[in-house]
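Example record

One chain of 451 residues, shown exactly as stored in the release files.
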Amino acid sequence: MNAVNFYSSANQGRECLLPITTFLGSLAIATLLWVLPTRASTFAPIPAWSFANPTPASYDGFAFSVALSGNSALIGDYGKNGYSGVSYLFDVTTGNLQQSFANPTPTWGDLFGRSVALSGNSALIGAEGDTGSTGAAYLFDATTGNLLQSFASPTPTVAGRFGSSVALSGNSALIGAYADSITGAAYLFDTTTGNLLQSFAAPTFARSRFGASVALSGNTALIGAYGANGSIPAAYLFDVATGNLLQTFTSPAPAPGDFFGSSVALSGNSALVGAYGEKSGDNRYSGAAYLFDVTTGNLQQSFANPTPGPYDNFGSSVALSDNIALIGAEGDNTYRGVAYLFDATTGNLLQSFASPTPASYEYFGSSVALSGNSILIGTGGTNSITGVDSAYLYASNSSGSSTLSQSVPGPLPLLGLGAAFAWSRKLRRRIHTHATQHSVGDGLPSPNQPE
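Predicted structure tokens for this chain:
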């Protein structure tokens, strides 16, 4: 496959559409590369790759959850084959499909791939709908595609949703079950032996949906509990070695229905917590996100929606890497969606990202991720009728150069041959009611079905 990029230096500093011609044998396929003017900041908003569903079908839920590690991206497709689900691993440098992970025990409604995590050569995939929504999670070798471990809840509960959230770090896997034993739970496993290392229970006894979001970094685990039935939303930081509770993070501006803790991320000494339901003025579900110091528990930054509007859902997805925070606002602009990149130290907005092919109800930013020199933003299974959901990879310009060509690692083949996107565990469960009258969700208000 050869590609011709007609980029010209005359386009530098201007928003433009660049024609790309890709040849498959004797067939020439013309596409357009959308670019924004570059600026003197760390990341230039230029899609390096556009990844589409390899086998598109209606109501797939492709790109609802994704993970990124090194040169590989894992993306879930939970709606495939009657919601049995599948997941795909792609090379982010070439766009090639590396592995297809099939549901080991396929059954209608398993939702395999609705949560994913990736670390090194290990891929962790949740199937919260397995066995009457008791749930399951599976660990695969990302290189060979072999199944390494099958995880089940140590305290299985019908509709417990074990596997609704997953995280990987080193030899540990953290798996959430937000309805397990009513209050919710999360479990830490050894990925080598499959043994249970820790059980984390909700510090409160209300239906807090503890375990709806999880993050894992080194010796700490962050577990979100966005609240239900009057319980106070929070995010809890634990020591994974001892199981001790280290910090309890709550919203600086608590309000009913703010869904603080619906998305979480960890990096270094910082914890990022989304609250997509927080109001801004009269704008319901405008959203917010907060950065905390994991050592002291102190609030470091408050990230407000840069363009607040009703049902923007800013904070529905979050990612954190060193001093950079990436926050999705999937409902912005008639649910076309936006994602924002912030300096986590100063709180300054660095970049705004919008879909290269904006459309109403695309939900761009419903999943986000940061890893090394890459930003990945997904549309989260929203163009369900046509099955054309995508995820977009953006390349880092670490030098901050304003030269557009230095930010483009290669041509952008928009061929739908592969798909990739990175980690973002947004644990708000958007309710999809399809033509089959099948509905999946946990009762959280949908952007297009407000409370």
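Notes: The two ends are 49 Å apart (CA to CA).
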